[in-house]
Amino acid sequence: MSTCVPKGSRSAKGAAAAAEVEPRDVDLQPEVKWHDGAAGYVARLDLAGFRKEEFRVQVDGAGRVTVRGQRPAGHVRLHSEFQLPPAADVDRIAARFDGATLCLIVPKRPAGGAAEVVLETMEDARVAAALELETERERAAGWDRGSAIAAAVAAFALGVVVSHRIFSTRNG
């Protein structure tokens, strides 16, 4: 692999040696890896090389998480922003750093209090009952027409049978 060095510049070996000595600014944007569990979410960010004192995590009221930091050695800066899911309980977030990975444990908000659950269940039952009643009416409307025809045929047949018996016993 060749290194392109302009004329009048230092040699390729000299440039490589100077690059090792000169600090470079590096901006990191670590990928957020999500796990969605039944009780909450876990967000993991790889922060290998950072110490706990070198970065900061902030969460605003709208669920926006910002992780910023700077490592003096090598002039490495860290910046990551992401939005928490709507079901996240931003007031109960916990963080853990093991020296390489930052884990944010984000509980989900409860579906509602017991009274809200009961009201939702009652509303669901009311809607189901209304749908069942409507279905019964639709079936009854269709069944009544068929029933009316069947009843008319049965009445006619019964009338014929009864009439036949009455006339046959009188004449017989």
Output the radius of gyration. 39 Å
Q: How many strand segments?
A: 8
Averaged pLDDT, please?
Answer: 75
Shape: rod-shaped
Which CATH class of the domain at 26-107 is shown? Mainly Beta
What would your notes on this structure say?
This protein is an alpha+beta fold and 172 residues long. The chain has a domain at 26-107: Immunoglobulin-like (Sandwich). Helix content is 40%, strand content 27%. It contains two helices and eight strands. The strands form two sheets. A four-stranded mixed β-sheet has the order 1-6-5-4, with no helix packed on it. Strand 4 and strand 5 (64-71) form a beta hairpin. The chain crosses the membrane at residues 147-167. Residues 23-125 form the SHSP domain. Belongs to the small heat shock protein (HSP20) family.
Q: Which tags fit this structure?
A:
8 strands, 172 residues, Immunoglobulin-like, four-stranded antiparallel beta sheet, disordered N terminus, 27% strand, four-stranded mixed beta sheet
Walk me through the topology.
Elements: H1 12-21, E1 26-28, E2 32-36, E3 40-46, E4 55-59, E5 64-71, E6 76-83, E7 94-97, E8 101-107, H2 114-171
Parallel strand pairs: 1-6
Antiparallel strand pairs: 2-3, 3-8, 4-5, 5-6, 7-8
Organism: Oryza glumipatula
Keywords: Membrane, Transmembrane, Transmembrane helix
Biased composition (Low complexity): 1-20
Structure summary:
The chain is α+β, with helices and mostly antiparallel strands. It is 40% helix and 27% strand. The protein has a 4-stranded mixed sheet, with no helix packed on it.
